[in-house]
Amino acid sequence: MDGAASQPEYAVRCLAPLADREGDEQPNFEIDGKAKAASLRIGQMSRQLVAKLPDIAIDLMEIAAFVYAIDSSVSRGGLTDQKMGAKWHRKFTVTMPVRMLARWTDPDVKRELEETLMFLSGDRFAFNFVQMPPDLSGPSGYFNFGEDSSWMPDTLLMFSGGLDSYAGALEEIVDRRHSVALISHFSSTKIAPIQSALQKCLAEKLGAKMLTHIPVRVQLHGGTNAEGTHRARSFLFAALGIVTAVAFGRDRVSFYENGVVSLNLPPVGNVLGTRATRTTHPQTLQRFQSLFSRIFDTSLRVDNPFFWRTKTEVVETIARLGMADQIAFTRSCADVHNQTRQYPHCGRCSQCIDRRFAIIAAGLEAFDPSEAYRVDLMTGGRERVQDKEVALSYVRNAFGYEIMTDADLLTHYPAILNAVDHLDERPDTALKRIAALLQRHGGSVTAVMRAQLATGRLDRFPADSLPNLYGKLHRAQVLPVSQTTSFGSEARKGIEPVDLTFDRKRELVLINNTITINGAAYRLLAGLAKEHLSGSGRGLDLLDYPTIDAGKLAERLALSDDAALRQSVRRTRGQLGKKFASAGFEEEDVKALIENIPWSGYRLNPERVTVRMLLPD
After folding, report:
1. Distance of CA 313 to the CA centre of its chain
2. Is-contact 123 67, C-beta < 8 A?
3. CA 86/CA 274 separation, integer angstroms
4. Quick one: CA dihedral 513, 517, 521, 522, positive or negative?
5. Is residue 610 a contact partner of residue 498, using CB atoms and an 8 Å limit?
6. pLDDT tens-digit profile of 136-180?
7. Structure confidence by residue, pLDDT tens digits, 572-583
8. Which of 3, 141, 255, 458 is deepest in the core (most CB within 10 A)?
9. In this structure, what DSSP letter does residue 229 have?
């Protein structure tokens, strides 16, 4: 008997932190009786700042480190999970000692903590807090102390070493003249030198007093790294950021990430639950802000100043502020462990694809050499099915975003309301701004893709390259069924286009100077002809001619809804079929005339029609 798979449950017992041989304190814990451990070290904070940290801040750091380590210790089943994602949602019952027991057992604090982690990771964390022995409550083992200093930052931001956070640091320092504390979390020794080198370059060019770097190392010990998605990592990142802000007496910490990534719209069709990251989703940041404010019993802010920017606009910010030469030293790749000096970017993951499209769209290829990518965006072969799907989905979505309205957003991505409801905007305004953001993103990506496809025949690209894969897929979607088996010119050889001449004064269309169509069929064809002519007027490739969304077309024709539109299309095709048959045309000519492209809309087949408009006298 089939049924929903039960959620895996695990009992976790967190132990009081113990010092290792070097004197560093470690979060130690057990999952179902099996010992696990991680290490947490925070650098460059002065003793005087650390001494001012309240116990609740140390508790928060430990909870966040434990959650990250627990999340990493139990596999979600991997990409080959055959239970449709059942293992991806886990339940952890966590017993943990804390210093400020009364605060953590407050029902509102506990509820917000558990709900935040549920939204962020998709997992259920049920906490049972107990009092930590007073002799084990010291925090000093977590810190590598820097020099005592009276320096204070105006802004604290999370600094990953990627393009977005680098652009954010630049804008804070150069445009706003703010001194900045860069808080970096790393678990790989390959990322720490990158973050440090970027900070040093900023200090050399902009002034050492304008910034300081606070690196935070969290490493998982053997047997504690069984799951690579790390969906709870951003909670650790945010907690460390807000603790640092509290230490400096500040009330705000910022994540800088472009809004397209922050929105977390599914990149591929089979994304399940926690496979889609929510690190800087508006609801995540608002939950962080509410939770931290409740924990510290004061108003705190967690924001994303780049939410209304695309990746291309972020890259353009770096160039505008005179640091384009540092783009090559930033890192965006998700496949950190396989990075090499020769190939710091894999070129296969969605982060690399996003980065490379943005660089090309901004015209900054000279500052981001293609040789740094193991797989080149356009000429590299993508042999694995997963790699092909990631690249194709990215491009398909971009073409959809380019023409997407706020109404389309709600239709295709109803979960967008999770973002709209957590922005400091009126819902209708937020929805329109998000649609505009996605349109700008889509436009920059599609411009790059069209430019590549316009450079020559697809067969000049490797068989598994993105242009070849996308070009073939696109043709398969738009050509009649009888032609999808071949993509060469032979498939269209001998097929004459159908000539449509529209007489708007008499409200009729003359087809091949033989067939006359009027009434509802004329209005439908005229509505589609408007979009067709806009593509012709822009000089688009035939495959790139625009479609019109079903809802918009129904509105244009004064029809009640999509169902009425579909009925109108069926009737028009039927009417055309009868008239075509009497005029000696083939049935295939009718079928090919009006296209319905999934997820895009309707259009006149640009390869099968020519359109002319007779102007009224």
Report:
1. 15
2. no
3. 11
4. positive
5. yes
6. 656 567 877 777 778 899 999 999 999 999 999 999 999 999 999
7. 888 888 887 776
8. 255
9. -
The residue whose two tokens read 């296969």 is: 348
The answer to whether the CB of 131 falls within 8 A of the CB of 100 is: no
Provide the 8-state DSSP code for 497.
Answer: P
CA distance 279 to 304: 11
| Residue linked to tokens 């012709």 | 536
Nearest to 521 by CA among 448, 577, 459: 577
If DSSP states are collapsed to H, E and C, what string results for 386-406?
A: HHHHHHHHHHHHHHHHHCCCH
Both tokens of 153, joined, read: 């930052």
Residues sharing a CB contact under 8 Å with residue 340, sequence separation 6 or more, in sequence order: none
What's at 110, amino acid-wise?
A: K
316 vs 310: CA distance, rounded Å: 10
- Over the stretch 382-419, which tens digit does the pLDDT of each residue have? 988 888 888 988 998 898 899 888 888 888 888 888 89
What are 508's strand-pairing partners? 503, 518
Q: Which residues pair with 12 in a beta bridge?
A: 31, 94
> Of all helices (H) and strands (E), which one includes residue 128?
strand 124-131
Separation CA 113–CA 125 (nearest Å): 9
The Cα–Cα gap between 271 and 265 comes to 10
What gap in Å lies between CA 521 and CA 524, rounded to an integer? 5
3-class SS shares of the chain: helix, strand, coil, % to 5: 50, 15, 35
Q: Are 594 and 545 in contact (CB under 8 A)?
A: no
Write the DSSP string, 39-103. EEEEEEE-HHHHHT--HHHHHHHHHHHHHHHHHHHS----TT-SSTTGGGS-EEEEEEEES-HHH
**Can you read off the two tokens belonging to residue 590?**
């009718």
Residue 504, token pair as written in the block: 């708007």
